[in-house]
Amino acid sequence: MLHYWDDKDLFPNGIQRCFWITQVSLGEFRGQHAHREEVQVLVCLSGQLKITVEGIDGSSNEFTLDHPGKGLLVPPLNWVKVSFGGGGVLLGLSDRSFDESDYIRLWDDFKKLQRLYRE
């Protein structure tokens, strides 16, 4: 089965970085951070992923990715937490090269930004 993505409007400068995460034990989480400017598309290549996304506006949504034909667009300023089912393989595609200063890694810092957003 062939899966592809062809959307020059979403990443006008092309995919600048891709990463994949494998061999995460059942019940462990990955992600648990947000980005200031980076946009990502997340795809489950194998197994199952449950992805919780909390927005800067305080909204919270859970998504299940269980087929390589599904993807999740994650705009900037969204806190992402990924739970891996057995054999889950996550592929991430990004519009930016790695930049540590783009990460919001502390939950308390993200909550402060949410409060500022609401004011």
Automatic annotation (TrEMBL):
Q: Which residue ranges does the record assign to the Sugar 3,4-ketoisomerase QdtA cupin domain?
A: 7-113
Matching entries from Pfam families are given as: FdtA
Q: InterPro entries per the record?
A: QdtA_cupin_dom, RmlC-like_jellyroll, RmlC_Cupin_sf
* Name of this chain's protein: Sugar 3,4-ketoisomerase QdtA cupin domain-containing protein
Query: Which organism is this entry from?
Result: Algoriphagus sanaruensis
Q: List the lineage, top down.
A: Bacteria, Pseudomonadati, Bacteroidota, Cytophagia, Cytophagales
